[in-house]
Amino acid sequence: MRNNQKIIQSDELDMLLILLPSGWSEFLLYIHGRSFNYVITHVFNNPYSEIMYAVLDLIQDKWETEFIWYNEPGGCKFEIKRIKDKQHKAIISIYYFEESYGGQLNFKLETQFEVKIKQFVLLCYLQLKKTYLLLNDKEFSEKRSGAFLVQNFHDFERKVEDFLKKNK
What is 85-118 written as a DSSP string? Predict the structure, then answer.
């Protein structure tokens, strides 16, 4: 981990997932006064599907899930593990790597933070909902076609809304 930091325990968490033109996205993460920025290519996987499936894993009470977002080269890996004695919370570990897609990846821990699962689910859902709504605009969506799976989003949204109703 850079600078030997500890697991950040704070509810000061926010994120911004930006669908850029021509097969790219950017992810900005704010945690307790610190910010992290990741540029993501859509060439090797669909970053929106990756985060949706991770959120669905949490909603379905899986103990852990992970996903990788690639850049060219490099990228980041998110590991999300439920805390055994506080099952409504998880530890999210973010690793970075410098290697290119297809090669052996050497993960280096960038940061770790504790978060309420409900908060993380809600933040992810709102970013995905924003993207879905923006894609309804013809001019916005022309440069971003195929980047976001509408049918997958409808199913995802229904499951998130059910989860949020149960976990008020």
Answer: TEEEEEEEEEEEE-SPTTS----EEEEEEEEEHH
Whole-number Å distance between alpha carbons of 154 and 11:
28
- Report whether 73 contacts 99 (CB < 8 A): yes
The Cα 133–Cα 12 span in angstroms is: 26
- Give φ, ψ of 118 to 5 degrees: -60, -40
Residue with structure tokens 């997958």?
A: 152
Q: Give this prediction's pTM.
A: 0.92
Residue-wise pLDDT for 17-66, tens only, equals 999 998 899 999 999 999 999 999 999 999 999 999 999 999 999 999 99
Phi (first) and psi of residue 106, to 5 degrees: -110, 95
Give, in order, the Cα–Cα distances in Å from 93 to each of 77, 137, 145: 8, 35, 31
- Which residue, chain included where needed, has tokens 């605009």? 137
Q: Report the sign of the C-alpha dihedral through residues 89, 7, 66, 134, in that order.
A: positive
d(CA 163, CA 168): 9
